Automatic annotation (TrEMBL):
Gene3D superfamilies: FAD/NAD(P)-binding domain. Signal peptide: none annotated. It comes from the Eukaryota. This is Epsilon lycopene cyclase. InterPro entries: FAD/NAD-bd_sf. Pfam families: Lycopene_cycl. It comes from Bixa orellana.
Length: 160
């Protein structure tokens, strides 16, 4: 997804040797962003619609005016731009699915993929969203782990 591609591109731009493993699939989620934050990332060309101001309605009281522009992201344009940045930064790519991640004796990790492909690495970062669960291992007796998700809807309302 976007987080993994952005992390890969930025890490490679800093001089790290970066590889991505995963199927090349289109983004399926809808993304909304604060316009000013996407501009800071140089991604404003990926916004397909901008609302000039954001208003929050919590109950029957007066609406809360946020004072920031909010944009709906084009999944297609964002995917293309992040892939372009990965290619430009020299990120290598393996079109496969990760089966598991194991710690090797030398302090490295071994990423086991489909078709018995094993990729050694110093650091494996899982950026698979909801599908990450099967790849994560938690410390026995360690702190509880939290996850985050967001939910939103886009509705058209009459102008009052």
């Amino acid at each position: 997804g976007p987080a993994g591609l952005a992390l890969a591109a930025e890490s490679a731009k800093l001089g790290l040797n970066v590889g991505l493993i995963g199927p090349d699939l289109p983004f399926t989620n809808n993304y909304g962003v604060w316009e000013d934050e996407f501009k800071e990332l140089g991604l404003e060309g990926c916004i397909e619609h901008v609302w000039g101001d954001t208003i929050v309605y919590l109950d029957n009281n007066d609406p809360i005016v946020i004072g920031r522009a909010y944009g709906r992201v084009s999944r297609h344009l964002l995917h293309e731009e992040l892939l372009r940045r990965c290619v430009e930064s020299g990120v290598s790519y393996l079109n496969s699915k990760v089966e598991r991640i194991m710690e090797a004796n030398n302090g490295h990790n071994l990423v086991a993929c489909e078709q018995n492909i094993v990729v050694p690495c110093r650091l494996a970062t899982v950026a698979s969203g909801a599908a990450s669960g099967k790849l994560l291992q938690y410390e026995v007796g360690g702190p509880r782990v939290s996850v985050q998700t967001a939910y939103g809807i886009e509705v058209e309302v009459e102008n009052n």
